Amino acid sequence: MPVHLTVLGKSPSWQDRDGACSGYLVEVDGTALVIDCGSGVFAKLRRHGAYERVAAVVISHVHADHVLDLVPFAYALAFGPPLRDAPPALHVPPGGGEQLRRMCASWGSATLIEDAFALSEYDPSAELAIDAAALRFRTLPHYVPSNAIELRARAGGGRLVLSADCGPNDELAVFAHGAQVLLIESTQLDPQPGSGDRAGHLSAGEAGAIGRAAAVERLVLTHFSDQLDRDGLRERAQAAFGGPVELAAEGAVYSV
């Protein structure tokens, strides 16, 4: 049974021109999920699919560029036309519920998101089943704990892995080993020692090296700005990966 992933947004913490931050629409046998919901993602979701179809939203980590569009999503669910009998699920990492409450409390609406969604905190060491989809997690180094996500159909088939945000590490290659597709962050063109950013993000060459160590079939770079040199990103990643590397773009679909 195939898993289809549509890129809603691939920008880093600031949006591309006409783009969106991190967000992906995943469809498995009629089950629609959204992975991350950063700035601009809700509008892109409405372009690429009806938000009322979404069974669940899964958040890799609670940084602004991965969660801010939960706010317009929640307003649409709360105040838009009644579209469904039950609210969509919202799965956040440990502590994520309180972080979202604090964010919304800043304008006096602390429970906005949890009132609109069925909110729960997932265990990163356990598998999460959502209708026809199965998800596994691996916590990776970032400024806050960030969870790579493996997506597959519960009925069997291929594996697609999203790195979420991470700095250089060995765990991702183990987690993603043998996957058909790895979408991996490449926020930086080159490593920037001394910038204070080394714990948080990967360069194109580091992303390529992880893909090679993971022996994945397809490597796709994501979470990079349209201000970066696309040819440079691809060339550096391909040199380390040892094969062709793709660059994520809004609307691109990856299937396993």
Fold and architecture overview:
There is one protein chain. The chain is of the alpha/beta class. It has one domain (3-255): 4-Layer Sandwich (Metallo-beta-lactamase, Chain A). It is 25% helix and 27% strand. It is built from eight helices and 14 strands. It has helices spanning 41-48, 64-67, 70-79, 96-105, 112-116, 171-175, 204-214, 230-241, and strands at residues 3-9, 23-28, 31-37, 54-58, 89-92, 118-121, 128-130, 133-140, 146-153, 160-162, 181-185, 218-222, 246-247, 253-255. A seven-stranded mixed beta sheet has the order 6-5-4-3-2-1-14. The chain has a seven-stranded mixed beta sheet with strand order 7-8-9-10-11-12-13.
The CATH topology, please? Metallo-beta-lactamase, Chain A
Estimate nothing, just give the exact number of structural domains.
Answer: 1
CATH class: Alpha Beta
The order of strands across the largest sheet is: 6-5-4-3-2-1-14
Q: State the helicity in percent bands.
A: 25-40%
* Secondary-structure class: alpha/beta
List segments where confidence is low: pLDDT < 50 over at least 5 consecutive residues: none
Quickly count the helices: 8
- Give the beta-strand count: 14
CATH arch. level architecture: 4-Layer Sandwich
Mean pLDDT: 95
What is the CA-CA span between the terminal residues? Answer: 9 Å
Query: Element order, helices and strands?
Result: EEEHEHHEHHEEEEEHEHEHEE
What characteristic shape results from the CA principal axes? Answer: globular
Relevant CATH superfamily: Ribonuclease Z/Hydroxyacylglutathione hydrolase-like
Biggest sheet character? 7 strands, mixed
Whole-number radius of gyration?
A: 17 Å
